[in-house]
Amino acid sequence: MPLHVQISSCFSARISSGAWPAGMKLAPQRELCRLLGVNRSTLMTALGTLAGQGLIEGRRGGGTRVTAADNHSNNSTAPGSWSDYLEEGTHYPNLPAVQAINRLEFEPGLIRLGTGEPAPELLPGEAMTRVLAELVSRPLPPLAYEEPLGNSGLRSAVSRQLLKQGIQAEPGSILITSGALQGLQLIALGLLPRSSTILLEKPSYLYSIHAFQSAGIKFSGLPVDESGMVVSRLAAEALRTKAAMLYTIPSFHNPTGIVMDETRRQELMAVSGGLGLPILEDGAYQELWLDAPPPPPLKTLDREGRVLHLGTLSKAASPGLRIGWIVGPEPVIRRLADIKMQTDYGASSLSQMAAARWLDGGYHEEHLTLLRSRLRQRRMLMLQLLDAHFSGLASWSVPSGGFYIWLSLDRPLPLRRLFESARRAGLLLNTGDLYDRGDSRHLRLSYAYASPDELQSGLPALAAIIKEHHI
Questions:
Q1: So what's the pLDDT on residue 72?
Q2: Does pLDDT of 80 surpass 70?
Q3: Are 455 and 382 within 8 A, CB to CB?
Q4: Residue 98: exposed, middle, or buried by beta-carbon count in 10 A (0-12, 13-18, 19+)?
Q5: What single string gives the DSSP state of each residue in 149-189?
Q6: Interval 324-381: pLDDT, tens
Q7: Confidence band (pLDDT; 50, 70, 90) for 158?
Q8: 100, 198, 265, 440 - which has most CB atoms within 10 Å?
Q9: Which of 459, 452, 441, 431 is nearest to 378 (CA)?
Q10: Residue 35: its pLDDT value, please?
Q11: Where do you find CATH 1.10.10.10 in the chain?
Q12: What mean pLDDT is predicted for residues 6-26?
């Protein structure tokens, strides 16, 4: 059967089954050709067949859409069209670039130069297998719902782990979440009024997700320097915006890799205390130091219960376990737990039991030692490759931990075009405009995911692409 017939038949089946509802916009033709592995002529023949059947329609400036079922009308707003609902939901969609990254990360053959998670070979597969074997070596308790705050054994284990960082938190002041991202969503929904403003570093990871914006929360960015957030700007901006909260990643900041020094942390606590401004501290990378431990978390300086501290196992141990936590005053934690119960009725019981054994069994500390060693090697390789291929194109600082090198291009570039050029060359980038909408000079490079062989081929290729865009 000719390829164009196979394609038109496949698309027709998806339309007739309702998987592709009326009004749905098809991917751009170039993207479809790439996904299907065909040339444009073959694709156009297939699309022409579907258009002749009245199943799709091309619209000038609007791409190609599935037509309505009744007489193949092009009215995507007819009653029952899912297109209406897609536009009306209260939660914002991801940025188009983030949607593309999320989709492309699972496409074989792409070198992921910006991915913010450990490579599969850096994850503790054998150790986690031992943890699960220990769990099933004795009768498991019923996998029932956990209490609202989460599994008591895991909260006790997290409490002991936090104490190693200097944070004193009783199990009753800890909420187990389905990853740290859920913690952000719960805080946005449960603690902040709509139209309120939070302050944060600019650039920041928070700009790349819509957990807060979907809840009607606005952002106001503060600049960063080599010591972290510029606290001298904090008071004026907090008063100008009537800020309700401050969000910060003080240790191995995402995306810049900066560590807020101890003096700056004390200044931040003093200024925010004078303003009565609560702080949301994201400690996702706190344990991932490579040269020396960072200063203690802001939560260790908190004597008034103003700091909420987020933690996670996703960055070091297992993204797939989906285990994170929030530490804070007990009334706040109970409020967030109540919202979580309305959302998912608790994180996976099995994941929580595995996480508790992971922490209490000494696996976590053992794995961190090994992970740091491997990340040091990858960091060294990336820095060597940058020195060899990016001199005269960009500048960078040496991160003391975390996953990222914040590459500062010597001249502005159209980052969306750079992203597409890199993708066509088999490279997947995280461009700076994900973390600061106005950025045109930065890339977030990660030494945590791409293999050494991929770094050795991918970074020279990226340098060549940047040079082409300079012309």
A1: 44
A2: no
A3: yes
A4: middle
A5: T--HHHHHHHHHHHHTTT----GGGEEEESSHHHHHHHHHH
A6: 999 999 999 999 999 999 999 999 999 999 999 999 999 999 999 999 999 999 999 9
A7: very high
A8: 265
A9: 452
A10: 83
A11: 3-89
A12: 87
Q: Where are the alpha helices (DSSP H) in 19-151?
A: 29-36, 40-52, 82-88, 96-104, 125-136
d(C-alpha 75, C-alpha 81), whole Å: 9
Q: What's the burial of 410, exposed, middle or buried (CB within 10 Å: 0-12/13-18/19+)?
A: middle
Tokens in use for 387? 């020195």
100-123+366-470: CATH topology is: Aspartate Aminotransferase, domain 1 (3.90.1150)
Locate tokens 């700007």: which residue?
233
CA distance 297 to 165: 7
Non-local (6+) Cβ contacts of 404 within 8 A are 116, 252, 254, 255, 256, 257, 444, 445, 446, 447
Q: What is the CATH number of domain 139-363?
A: 3.40.640.10
Q: Return the half-sphere exposure (C-beta side, CA atoms, 13 A cut-off) of residue 177.
A: 29
The per-residue pLDDT for range 195-213, each reduced to its tens digit, is 999 999 999 999 998 889 9
Report how far residue 346's alpha carbon sits from residue 150's, in angstroms, rounded to the nearest whole number: 7
Helix (H, G, I), strand (E, B) or coil at 204: coil
> How far apart (Å, rounded) are the C-alpha atoms in residues 378 and 372?
10
Report the pLDDT value the prediction gives residue 76, as an integer from 0 to 100: 44
Helix then strand then coil, in percent of the chain rounded to 5, is 45, 15, 40
Provide the mean pLDDT of the chain.
Answer: 93
Q: Where in the chain is the domain with CATH 3.40.640.10?
A: 139-363
Q: How far is CA 294 from CA 227, 252, 281, in A?
A: 12, 8, 14
Burial of 213 (0-12, 13-18, 19+ CB in 10 A): middle
Return the CATH fold of 3-89.
Arc Repressor Mutant, subunit A (1.10.10)
Residue closest to 383 by CA, chosen among 462, 308, 285, 456: 456
Q: Which residues pair with 201 in a beta bridge?
A: 222
pLDDT tens digits along 107-147? 889 999 999 999 999 999 999 999 999 999 988 888 899 99
